[in-house]
């Protein structure tokens, strides 16, 4: 007998009716050797002995037969190896695979029941299998770890695994290591769903709490909105299991994001918020936190606490969230990223994000896709998020799933990142716990996102005053007859003899007694002694915007930084244009050339880094800069490798993170907001490719950046660089919509600046970190001024001075001769300056305001006071009259000028668009703006 045939016969799994299964494995091996287990790879490699076969033809069965015939006619020893048995085994293999791929479609995971009939391809007859085959032994592969089982038992096992309370989607994942891992976890043991009696009683306690707080609030505060969790109470056991399991795996922090539904339940039953405190909020007798001016509704509020776990304390943070649903997703991810950076090397496994979603929101909100798309990128990866989608099967108010999405499942968007999805019945708490453990293990093993869809229902309407039966009569007939998950599970434990009905009732009453007493009802909350990071924000409260900061840098420090920025690895070849730019920067550092914007900006970053502050800069083209001015990330023209000099200044320096982002505004800006609210000592910057790109992130700006402090007391030092200026390039990309930011300004909530010199951006960026003041900074950054011949600075401008909110007249004018004062902001200043110098106008003074909010009233009055004979005050802007500064800020001029001084506007007429579409029209308009400012009659206003 040949050695190959002996190998074949000695391997019991290759015998007789198993051959069809072997054939299917072999076809997979020929297509992709890595798609089968290593042991099979070894066997197949030896058997086909280097022969090359075309796919899909698989000659393995024929090959075996030939080997047997050549070996003294021993084919009979192959125990029933017939064409029919091969076909049957192949059919069984296809059926098994079909359950793995599509079993979720017929899973019994809807607590309200399924109405659709099973597809015909789940019928064994579809594969040519009939009743006589039911008791035939077939090879099972790895199903339950048994080599062979009767077909009847195979189908029963498949239904139990893939069609019970859990529907598993994972076969779409191309990484076979991942699919094999999930398959083995699902199929390897019948004991997967077994839970010990003590854990079952704890589960009932959690469900009792989840139901109990809702009924208590319903009875005590009749008619008040709370966005109840009723119908989806199993979300509480999910979160409890995630926290306890995370702690057991060494996790130290869990950051949670969720919209309003169920938030009060989570606050009280998971994070340990005092029920008495919550009741005060319902009654309107609570005291707002320091820094909170407007406050917010109770179901938007955040919270933090420390909870004991088997692995030690875990710090929980529930993020503040407005009603814009999924917009919290990137904010949480950004906060988690900051915490992971702070934690150091193993940060991704010591801090994890958990995001709750609604079914309609998960499929309907674009920021979900943006956040998912960010999950594995260098700039925004957080090592995997556990997503919990609470599917109440009605969406938000009255929607029908036919109108809520175009996909089979609300979770289908997650397939874009090949995340596994587990659809679990919310009325089966034990299945919920199994899925939660599986999801957490997956996240910690592969550092990738995973989705749990909790299929449940909403017992009440969208809010407690809504009547859902108006639009969903059929569903709510079922719901009103349907027992709560707590009652269902209590009865199950009673039937199992684990508790008595009296004990179940006592558990309910004990919880209500604790609520009445206002006592904490969650797991014990630990004293917050180990988590001290919140105290790092204390020094930034109640600080004035004009608190001074020494932003100047000694000359030797500047030149040191410049020298380090010029040092490149051996063999690093720059593009000729970049080489020229670097050579110019060398001359600037030597004082041989005026400083341009790119040099000053890079020096701001470098000097902060060597002072051990961190710098993080993201946006769609930030490494080079949209207008090719920054070149903080250099590209080797030989091998396309990159080098970032800012990361290699000195051995002990601050962390520099500079990443070109994906093409997203809302997701990325939300991420950076979350990061900046967590790390006060990082200069965190988001740069729009063009200023108007921020339009795509307006929700983040309105709901978080401008109002996060006044609503929630959350400080934030985020910088937004928004290229702005009318350059004759058309309506789009001309305006960063300066007026919108000014409209949002109040209560000293943020800073809006429009710097016009390199020294100004240098001092402005350094001031943002060096001053003990943390408010968002909105910068109207330049385009043409990046290389304007007059928009330059000197080294001395960086080694002395500071950011100037107002830059007064710089030419040598006789202040007593000045009767006309032109005030402006931005690049129009240089047009005005050129024209005045050309016309030699002695009676006109020109000044720039570089900080538009908070408005520097005292500096403004001091500037005006220089001109005792002033008659006319002209505000000049290049934006249309209904845009830009005029309508939002002219009250500051009125409030701070003497009544005899006439105030006039010089600029474009009001317009629906930010700019005209033709260059020659733009030039004509710009000339008219300048002439109006210099020569217009203020009385004609």
TrEMBL record:
What's the catalysed reaction? N(6)-[(R)-lipoyl]-L-lysyl-[protein] + 2-oxoglutarate + H(+) = N(6)-[(R)-S(8)-succinyldihydrolipoyl]-L-lysyl-[protein] + CO2
Look up keyword Oxidoreductase and say if it applies: yes
Q: What's the EC number here?
A: 1.2.4.2
Q: Which cofactor does it need?
A: thiamine diphosphate
Q: Name one GO molecular function term.
A: thiamine pyrophosphate binding
The record places domain Transketolase-like pyrimidine-binding at 595-788
- Transmembrane domains' residue ranges: none
According to its UniProt entry, one GO biological process term is: glycolytic process
Pfam families xrefs: 2-oxogl_dehyd_N, E1_dh, OxoGdeHyase_C, Transket_pyr
Question: Does Cell inner membrane show up as a keyword for this record?
Answer: no
Which InterPro entries does this chain map to?
A: 2-oxogl_dehyd_N, 2oxoglutarate_DH_E1, DH_E1, KGD_C_sf, ODO-1/KGD_C, THDP-binding, Transketolase-like_Pyr-bd
Which Gene Ontology cellular-component terms appear in the entry?
Answer: cytosol; oxoglutarate dehydrogenase complex
Give the keywords, sorted. Glycolysis, Oxidoreductase, Thiamine pyrophosphate
Per UniProt, the enzyme's principal EC class comes to oxidoreductase
Q: Which family does it belong to?
A: Belongs to the alpha-ketoglutarate dehydrogenase family.
Please explain the role this protein plays, according to its UniProt record.
Answer: E1 component of the 2-oxoglutarate dehydrogenase (OGDH) complex which catalyzes the decarboxylation of 2-oxoglutarate, the first step in the conversion of 2-oxoglutarate to succinyl-CoA and CO(2).
What is its quaternary makeup? Homodimer. Part of the 2-oxoglutarate dehydrogenase (OGDH) complex composed of E1 (2-oxoglutarate dehydrogenase), E2 (dihydrolipoamide succinyltransferase) and E3 (dihydrolipoamide dehydrogenase); the complex contains multiple copies of the three enzymatic components (E1, E2 and E3).
What is the recorded name of this protein? 2-oxoglutarate dehydrogenase E1 component
Q: Which organism is it from?
A: Candidatus Methylobacter favarea
Gene that codes for this?
sucA
């Amino acid at each position: 007998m040949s050695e190959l045939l002996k190998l074949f016969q000695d391997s019991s799994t290759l015998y007789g009716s198993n051959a069809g299964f072997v054939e299917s494995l072999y076809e997979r091996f020929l297509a992709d050797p890595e798609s089968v287990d290593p042991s099979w790879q070894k066997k197949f490699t030896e058997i086909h002995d280097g022969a090359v076969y075309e796919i899909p033809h698989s000659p393995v069965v024929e090959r075996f037969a030939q080997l047997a015939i050549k070996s003294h006619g021993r084919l009979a020893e192959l125990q029933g190896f017939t064409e029919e048995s091969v076909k049957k085994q192949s059919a069984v293999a296809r059926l098994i695979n079909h359950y793995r791929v599509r079993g979720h479609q017929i899973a019994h995971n809807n607590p309200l029941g399924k109405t659709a009939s099973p597809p015909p391809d789940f019928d064994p007859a579809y594969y040519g299998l009939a009743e006589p085959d039911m008791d035939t032994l077939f090879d099972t592969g790895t199903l339950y770890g048994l080599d062979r089982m009767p077909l009847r038992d195979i189908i029963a096992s498949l239904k139990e695994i893939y069609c019970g309370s859990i529907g598993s989607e994972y076969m779409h994942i191309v990484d076979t290591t991942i699919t094999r891992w999930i398959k083995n976890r699902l199929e390897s043991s019948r004991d997967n769903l077994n839970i010990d009696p003590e854990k079952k009683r704890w589960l009932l306690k959690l469900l009792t709490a989840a139901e109990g707080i809702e009924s208590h609030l319903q009875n005590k505060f009749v008619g008040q909105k709370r966005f109840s969790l009723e119908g989806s109470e199993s979300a509480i056991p999910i979160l409890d299991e995630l926290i306890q399991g995370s702690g057991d795996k060494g996790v130290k922090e869990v950051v949670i994001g969720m919209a309003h539904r169920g938030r009060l339940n989570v606050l009280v039953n998971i994070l340990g918020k005092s029920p008495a405190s919550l009741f005060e909020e319902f009654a309107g007798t609570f005291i707002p936190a320091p820094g909170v001016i407007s406050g917010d509704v109770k179901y938007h509020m955040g919270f933090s606490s420390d909870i004991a776990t088997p692995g030690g304390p875990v710090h929980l943070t529930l993020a503040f969230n407005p009603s814009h649903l999924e917009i919290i997703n990137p904010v949480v991810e950004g906060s988690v990223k900051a915490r992971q950076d702070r934690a150091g090397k193993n940060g991704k496994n010591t801090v994890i994000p958990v995001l709750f979603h609604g079914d309609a929101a998960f499929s309907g909100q674009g920021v979900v896709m943006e956040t998912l798309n960010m999950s594995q990128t260098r700039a925004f990866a957080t090592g995997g998020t556990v997503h919990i989608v609470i599917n109440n099967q009605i969406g938000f108010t009255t929607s029908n799933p036919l109108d809520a999405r175009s996909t089979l499942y609300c979770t289908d968007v997650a397939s874009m990142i090949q995340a596994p999805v587990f659809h679990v019945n919310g009325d089966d708490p034990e299945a919920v716990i199994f899925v939660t453990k599986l999801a957490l293990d997956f996240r910690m093993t592969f550092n990738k996102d995973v989705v749990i869809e909790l299929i449940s229902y909403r017992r009440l309407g969208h809010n407690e005053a809504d009547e859902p039966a108006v639009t969903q009569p059929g569903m709510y007939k079922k719901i009103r007859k349907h027992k709560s998950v707590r009652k269902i599970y209590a009865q199950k434990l009673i039937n199992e003899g684990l508790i008595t009905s009296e004990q179940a009732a006592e558990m309910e009453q004990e919880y209500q007694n604790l609520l009445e007493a206002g006592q904490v009802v969650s797991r014990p909350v630990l004293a917050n002694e180990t988590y001290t990071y919140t105290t790092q924000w204390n020094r930034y409260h109640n600080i004035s915007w004009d608190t001074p900061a020494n932003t100047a840098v000694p000359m030797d420090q500047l030149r040191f930084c410049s020298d380090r920025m010029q040092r490149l690895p051996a063999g690093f070849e720059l593009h000729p244009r970049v080489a020229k730019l670097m050579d110019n920067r060398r001359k600037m550092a030597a004082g041989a050339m005026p400083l341009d914007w790119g040099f000053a900006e890079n020096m701001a970053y470098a000097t902060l880094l060597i002072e051990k502050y961190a710098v993080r800069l993201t946006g769609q083209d930030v490494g080079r800069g949209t207008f090719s001015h920054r070149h903080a990330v250099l590209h080797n023209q030989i091998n396309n490798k990159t080098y970032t000099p800012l990361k290699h200044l000195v051995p002990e320096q601050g962390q520099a993170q500079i990443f070109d982002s994906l093409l997203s505004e809302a997701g990325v800006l939300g991420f950076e907001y979350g990061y900046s609210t967590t790390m006060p000592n990082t200069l965190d910057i988001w740069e729009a490719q063009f200023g108007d790109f921020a339009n795509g992130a307006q929700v983040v700006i309105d709901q978080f950046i401008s109002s996060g402090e006044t609503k929630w007391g959350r400080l934030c030092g985020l910088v937004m660089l928004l290229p702005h200026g009318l350059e004759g390039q058309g309506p789009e990309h001309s305006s960063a919509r300066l007026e919108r930011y000014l409209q949002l300004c109040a209560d000293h909530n943020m800073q809006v600046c429009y710097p016009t010199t390199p020294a100004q951006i240098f001092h402005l960026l350094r001031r943002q970190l060096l001053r003990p003041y943390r408010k968002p900074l909105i910068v109207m950054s330049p385009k043409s001024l990046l290389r304007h011949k007059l928009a330059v600075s000197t080294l001395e401008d960086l080694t002395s001075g500071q950011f100037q909110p107002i830059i007064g007249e710089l030419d040598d004018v006789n202040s007593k001769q000045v009767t006309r004062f032109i005030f402006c902001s931005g690049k129009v200043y240089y047009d005005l300056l050129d024209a005045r110098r050309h016309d030699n106008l002695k009676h006109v003074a020109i000044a720039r305001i570089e900080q538009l909010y908070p408005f520097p009233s005292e500096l403004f009055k001091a500037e005006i006071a220089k001109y005792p004979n002033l008659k006319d005050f002209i505000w000049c802007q290049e934006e249309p009259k209904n845009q830009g500064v005029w309508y939002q800020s002219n009250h500051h001029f009125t409030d701070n000028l003497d009544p005899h001084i006439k105030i006039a506007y010089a600029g474009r007429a009001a317009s629906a668009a930010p700019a005209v579409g033709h260059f020659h029209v733009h030039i004509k308009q710009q000339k008219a703006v300048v002439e109006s400012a210099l020569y217009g009659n203020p009385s004609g206003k």
